[in-house]
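Slack export, channel: ligand-projects

TW: morning all. Re-posting the request from yesterday since it got buried. We need the structure predicted with the small molecule present, not the apo form. The ligand is S-adenosylmethionine; the SMILES is in the block with the sequence. No rush, but it would help planning for next week.
GE: picking it up
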Amino acid sequence: MPAPSSAAVPAGALRRGRGAGAPLGVATRGTTGVDRLRRTDRWLAGPGAGALRAAEDPLVVDLGFGASPVTTLHLARALRRVRPDVEVLGLEIDPARAARATEVVSALAPEQRRGVAFGVGGFELGGPAAGRRPVLVRAANVLRQYDVADVPAAWGAVGERLAPGGLLLDVTCDELGRRAGWAVVERSGPQQLVLSVRLADLGRPSEVAERLPKALIHANVPGQPVHALLTALDAAWDRAAPLAPWGPRQRWLASCRGLRDDGWPVLDRAPAGGPRRWRLGEVAVRWSAVAG
Ligand SMILES: C[S@@+](CC[C@H](N)C(=O)[O-])C[C@H]1O[C@@H](n2cnc3c(N)ncnc32)[C@H](O)[C@@H]1O
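GE: finished. pasting the full token output, ligand included:
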């Protein structure tokens, strides 16, 4: 099914010159929501947490947090369990959103805002992040509003600022955070595609197609690898139909195994993959399997 998502930002926005010191990118709609990014919070505090545990400077950036600071606060809460001294910096290209977040958060109890700050910045990770190397960067529902041709430049700009071993999560999800897809990007390029769905109301795995990361969403057409992946996942789901009476979790577990057994490079070992992740409605494959 081709995904019709169109970009709000004209193509080439990241290739054109910008004024000295201006953040890299363009302000877009600020839609966000409470708990919308919980699937990525959980991943970053789990499979994604290795580099944070080891980091000399435990700096994490929530890039493009939107009209409310809520996702940044939730990310900080999740990551404090991994690194109590984590610093989570919400960066926004829209200065009014950054100012408002600072104001809102200053009214919270010290424990809730511990290690959390906000500032103005774009894909160059400037503002309060300038001169530092974040170990994790989450950009959720940011690139989906750009043209697909701008994705490599955005990944490159963030990638070159990452700490050694650092990761960028380029995420797309629905309004309630029930369907999500993200690219796990290292400085050297994308490494994994992670799909994450709420199993309780899943009809078919390919429903996640509308929430593929920008780099893939337009490639979900017959003949392209990501379309073949979703078709294979649906087929594995169909084969696992006899497990439906035991609930969607058992069916999803069998589907992930089926996809792997069909020869797809499914990550099947902890921490990135395997039954513990699959039980959460997640499956991760090597990016090379979906790269066009
Ligand atoms: C749809 S909101 C997403 C909010 C939140 N991350 C979420 O997923 O719920 C996208 C936000 O990204 C911001 N944005 C767009 N391009 C950006 C860039 N290059 N750097 C920082 N923020 C950016 C927009 O101003 C907007 O507030």
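GE: first-pass observations. Confidence is low (pLDDT under 50) at residues 1-5. Strands lie at 59-63, 87-92, 116-120, 136-140, 167-173, 179-186, 189-197, 282-286.
TW: perfect, thank you
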